[in-house]
Amino acid sequence: MQQQPTAPAQQHHHDDEIDLGRLFGILLDHKWLIAAITGVFMFLGVLYAVLATPIYQADALLQVEKKSSGIPALGDMADMFATESEAATEIEIIKSRMVIGAVVDQLKLTNVVEPNYFPIIGKFLARRAEQQDQLVIDVLEVPTAELGEELRLEFDDIGSTHYTLYNSSGDAVLKGRVGQRAEAGDWVLHISDAVVANTDTFTLVKRSRLRAIQRVQEELNVSERGRQTGILTASMQHADGQLAAQVLNTITQEYMLQNIRRNAAEAENSLQFLQEQVPTIQQNLRDAEDELNKYRLESSSVDLTLETKGILDRIVELEKGINELTLKEAELSRLYTKQHPTYQALIQQKQELIADRERLSSQVKELPETQQQVLRLARDVEVNQEIYLQLLNRMQELNVLKAGTVGNVRILDDAEVNPIPVAPKKALIVVLATLLGGMVAVSYVLVRAMLNRGVESSEQLEQEGINVYASIPKSETQDTINEKLIKLAKRKSNEVIRAPLLAKEDPTDLAIEALRGLRTSLHFAMLEARNNIIMISGPSPGVGKSFVTANLAAVLAQGGAKVLLIDADIRRGYLHNLLNATNEKGLADYLADTTNNSDYHGYIQSGYITNLDFIPRGTAAPNPAELLMHARMTALMEQASQDYDYVLVDTPPILAVTDPAIVGRYAGTTLLVARFDMTPVKEMLYTIKRFEQNGIDVKGAILNSVERKASSYYGYGYNYHYGYAYKSE
Hints:
alpha/beta
């Protein structure tokens, strides 16, 4: 009974479900690929860790002490205005252009020198040389357009002192010698010292001052150790550790000097203010003394009573206090607005003293006129004298303070370079590279598996209603044969490369055993076929249909049946290479024969396999489709069907050419070959649809090159059909 295609089976899984078992199986199938890719990444990580330029770090430690408002003239009230210098403020000062700019100018950091070495390993070898290449550039001036551009400096030879400077366009602009100043227009270069031991080419860059400052700011890291400790840690990383230490030391020194200058400037401002007040107070004192002496002479009054003397002392003290507050008010006016609480407190205290003075003044009015006048003049003299002495004392204090200013910053530790590089972290790089390699490998395998929708089990085909007559396991011999056949198919020449026939060379191979099972299945499948002609085709090249056809024909012949094998791939057929035959004449020559002789026996070759006759494709023709539609093809098929037990016809892929649709009209049985893990199920369905559009009924499929894979085991179950899914060792 003829076996009909079964209806599509019920799907057991949904496309949107993630089959973790199958994913795990895919990874097991490609474990060596994953290991290889991971190993390559690990090797690259090790290579980078070894060859990468080491980065060293220099560290320095500073202390910022608490300081007052910096107004010495406030005397006892200084504590009222005490403030704390926050670490964030000091950090910004350290990284300011004021400090960094001075460092850039002092160390000439606008000049950048980089030796040129052989790519990849050049720097690695140079670091291990006895002498390190370096240039000491005192002056480098370039045109404005060349700022920031790479310039090339070439010495005549290694160890030479004569050089040539090339601009960014590669033109020579300057020639000179080490130790001498060279000038040419806007170009000026003075190299005071040079060590040219490993290379004779250097790259020079003249950065703008702002860009050099920004570069140092980017490399400088300043942070406070702990919270509100006032201890600042400054660090800098660079490939040249000594340069990093030099730059960092210069930064800390410049920061400390500016702090000292700042504190000295505060004392200088206060001293300048007091110096401006001294002449006025001194003149007021003289005027007051003259007035007192003059009045005493005129009134013949010399002494004051004890009561009047007491009032005078109290008034003098009040005037002294008021004057002190007036001076403090002048200082505070430079720091605070009149609405500031500190300023308001001082004004209130001053007003209280003025009120006390007014009360004493009312008592003075009760004294005799002579005593009042003497009291007033004596008060002016003593008050001005006290103020004058106070200003002189303050000026002396400020002069001493200015001379002994040390600032509130200390350098606790000078910059030192850690001999162990901080980068690259070799162990971490190797670990990360290995992990990255593993992730890339796994991602590549999973993405490739996702994009590859090839058949992985016969169950997939049968779920779509496609009968699978046989599953041919993969073997090493089969792989070798398929590779040779694919190469032959791609060749345009007529070069003959003999490929062994598996059924003859290794009849015990599992693939041949599967074909023997197919022989039994065909016996029952062809019971109701209209003839004994079997056409074997496939959806695309490379599925192994010629391999299956040739070996199936050999298995049928070895079973005692009389078999005729016809290579109907007139375009690129190569079955003659498998059957140890020649291709001098064949099917194309028979169909193109214009004689009335329809006897095909003259085109048959035999003897390689008992009971197996073979007709090769013959001479390549430009019109194979027209030849296959010729009446001689019909005559050949009818006569061969009567003369042989089986007639097997190998055809090209149906999705490539229309030849199989023509040959299929003569065949009673049509089988398709699908390659495991290569042919998509949808491609098979489309192939069957193409045949059905031409009126050809496809009986079923043969799954070729089945391989036992972990993904199939965990995902589909590789023992589903006949227990054939083996992988030969």
